Amino acid sequence: MPLAVQIAGPAGAIEARVEDPLPAGATRRVVGVVCHPHPLFGGTMQNKVVHTLARAMQELGAPTLRFNFRGVGASAGAYDAGRGEIEDAVAAVAWARARWDCDALWLGGFSFGAATALQAATRGARPAKLVTIAPPVGRIITEPVPRPDCPWLIVQGDQDELIDIDAVRSWARSFAPEPELTVIAGAEHFFHGKLGELRSGVLAFLRKA
Q: Is the pTM of this model over 0.70?
């Protein structure tokens, strides 16, 4: 069962959920943190893509932390156009590292959360692996961003009605080394009917040494 927790964030308390698949006393070698889609369009930590990503991490023995950005649910503060939300993500990562004293951290996000996770990765989060699902290239990601210094997976549906697959391919090629790109045929933005394929792609990436 998810455990409700509160994290001290830069804009006040952050509402979050912890799910730990391991028994008491087991060593937590890696922990996962997942960022949700756009706060102004109904995005919360309960989103099904966020759930799918977190559960994939749990399948590999990683406790996970999902959280609501500022102004969402019971989290304090108000939407900050992505700036403060990066700070929220970094605070969530720091809390997760302190709670589990883990060797490594996996960071992921969906849509707006993918853009936030990507930027948090180079602003203190320092993930061992990064997963960005349907990164909003051309919408939120409109300026060059630094490449995180870790293995990085992009998952994109080729029928996404909000994000152009060709723009994502071109954007991915602009980085050196290129991130791994998994394209899911027939998947639109919210991966309706494609969550199983999404999970499989994430698991394959996270299982790699």
A: yes
